[in-house]
Design a protein that fits this description.
By secondary structure, the chain is an all-alpha fold. It has one domain (4-78). Helices cover 78% and strands 0% of the residues. The chain has helices spanning 4-28, 34-44, 50-60, 64-78. Helix 1 runs antiparallel to helix 2 (34-44) and helix 1 crosses helix 3. The longest helix is centred in the first third of the chain and has 25 residues, at 4-28. The relative contact order is 0.11.
Length: 80
């Protein structure tokens, strides 16, 4: 059975992950300019556990292979 403390810890971890994901998504979609992105990260990064940030970056950012695949797909579609 999960204790209330464990439940609270899981909720906090999820909230931290959501903050990092939101920042990454805003930047990757171009929904935020660099000065605002800098302010976003300056505000949030000091309060986030490094292991949470590392996990989200590792699993949320596209790999080089995924980027290359997307670019090749777009190139092939545009040649039709």
């Amino acid at each position: 059975m999960i204790t209330p403390e464990q439940c609270k810890q899981r909720e906090e971890e999820q909230a931290h992950k959501d903050i990092v994901r939101k920042g990454i998504e805003m930047q990757m979609r171009g929904g935020i300019d660099r000065p605002r992105a800098k302010l976003y990260w300056q505000t949030h990064l000091p309060n986030l556990p490094a292991e949470i940030v590392a996990e989200v970056l590792a699993y949320h950012l596209p790999t080089t292979q995924e980027i290359e695949h997307a670019l090749m797909k777009d190139l092939l579609i545009s040649k039709r």
